[in-house]
């Protein structure tokens, strides 16, 4: 039994010296303090790296079908009252979407920006527009005789015209916000005065130049937000002075999935945008508007949250701390030998 213990003791890689054989020096203490400081700093750095979440991006073909596309709108039109504004959505075939799950609020805004009234519209999007395309055409003028018959200038129309003119004189604006759920196909939605009869609009506005579509986009997104998302139109302000025209935003939507560390998946969309403004011309016959023309990318982006594994953390920690310990040990031996050599040479010179 004793022989076996002796054999086991022979393979000890960490032999112990007797206490009286150990020598502690000032240089060793300095190196030890430096080494401990470096190891503590590197340990904190590695711990932060282990606890930090980073993202990995992957791309694949978008295979989604038959789903709806949520459009979150939050815009202010400081020069147009809520009564004249309407929202319209058209898909790539040119037909207006029917039975949209639409939840839109219109807030009447004073000249100072205070809310003075609220209107909830469960279905703000027009549904029966087989003759309307609203794509810079002149359809409003072609059906003017029918619209005149429908709207006429009865007491309700005259009252509405009077209220709108009074609101415009007071500098009243409108804030439109809510959610549009449309089909996942290319299309556009726009905010304008297209919902008015041409004759009613002519009574309200002296000309097309008086339809001031100045606007502020507080938020425009196509799905829920995730950490790090950037919506390029948020905070956009476009103010017109003594002129008018049509704003067009060409949007490319990129389907996105965000996967959290908890394995939860958040389906949403990113987008890029190009802006174009068409000034009003003298021969122009279409009403100024703000268009958002969108198309979907066939590629979907998957963003995954990841974190280094615990085994990876332990491996890096051992490498860093072990390397620092070995380096400080070598430095201590070098300093000890240098100091010993200098001390011996000094002693010899004194003896001589």
From TrEMBL:
Alphabetical UniProt keywords: Membrane, Transmembrane, Transmembrane helix
GO terms under cellular component: COPII-coated ER to Golgi transport vesicle; endoplasmic reticulum; membrane
A Pfam family hit: COPIIcoated_ERV
Domain named Endoplasmic reticulum vesicle transporter C-terminal: residues: 158-332
Membrane topology: Multi-pass membrane protein
Signal peptide: none
Keyword set includes Membrane: yes
UniProt similarity note: Belongs to the ERGIC family.
Name of this protein: Endoplasmic reticulum-Golgi intermediate compartment protein 3
Gene name per UniProt: LOC103710492
